[in-house]
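Changelog entry: the Thymidylate kinase record was regenerated in this release. Current contents:
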Amino acid sequence: MYVVIEGIDTAGKSTQLEILAKKYNNAVFTKEPGGTPIGSKLRQMVLTGEANSKLAEMFLFLADRAEHMQEIVLKNKDKMVISDRSMISGIAYAQNLPLKTVIDLNLISTNNVLPSHVILLKLSKKELENRLSQKEHDSIEARGIDYLIDIQNRMEETIKELNLNYIFIDASLSIEKISKDIEDFLNE
Ligand SMILES: Nc1ncnc2c1ncn2[C@@H]1O[C@H](COP(=O)(O)OP(=O)(O)OP(=O)(O)O)[C@@H](O)[C@H]1O
Ligand SMILES: Cc1cn([C@H]2C[C@H](O)[C@@H](COP(=O)(O)O)O2)c(=O)[nH]c1=O
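Regenerated C-alpha cells:
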C-alpha cells in the first residue's frame, strides 16, 4: 500500500501524520521533498529559493522524487508506505507548464508508479489566511494566498485526471474527525 497525504502548505498534513504514526507503527513514514539523503540537500536548495528559474526548481523536485521512489517506495513495496506529499504536489506546484506535460515528467520520475491511496486535505481561503498568518513563510509560501488556492485546485484536477483512489477532506474539520475519516478510508 502506497498512501500519500496531500494538501497545500498548512493544510494539516504533519498533524495527521503524527496521529497515523501512532496507529500504524509498522508503516514506513516518509516525505517529499527530503525523504532521502540527496533529497535533504535538494529540499534545502529549493526551500531557500536557490533556483532562480522555475524550470530548474521543478527539476530539483523531480530529482528528489526519482530518488525517493527508488530508495524508499520501491524498496519497501511489501510494507505500508505513508508519504507526506508526492507527485501530486509535483504536478500541481509546477504551474508554469501544461498539466499533461508535467504529468508525463512526473510519471518518468516515479517509473509510472502511482499511489494506491490519496488523501487530500482541502483548506478554504479564509482558513488558509488564518493559518499562514501564524507562521514564518518559506520561499514558496511567500508566493501568497491566491497562488496556493490555485495549487489546491490543480491538486484536485491532477487527482481526478490520474483516476486515483482518493478522499477529499475539509481541512477545517476537527483534528479528530479528519483522523477518523482517514482511518475509515484506509480500512475500506
Ligand atoms: N484540523 C485542524 N484544525 C485546526 N488547526 C489545525 C488542524 N490541523 C492542523 N492545524 C494547525 O494548522 C497548522 C499547520 O498544520 P500542519 O503543520 O500539520 O500542516 P502541514 O500541511 O504539514 O503544513 P506544511 O505543508 O506547511 O508543512 C498547525 O498550527 C496545526 O496545529
Ligand atoms: C513535493 C513538492 C513540494 N513543493 C513545495 C510545497 C511546499 O511549499 C514545499 C515543501 O514544504 P513542506 O514543508 O514539505 O510542505 O515545497 C513543490 O513546489 N513541488 C513539489 O514537487
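The mean pLDDT is 96.
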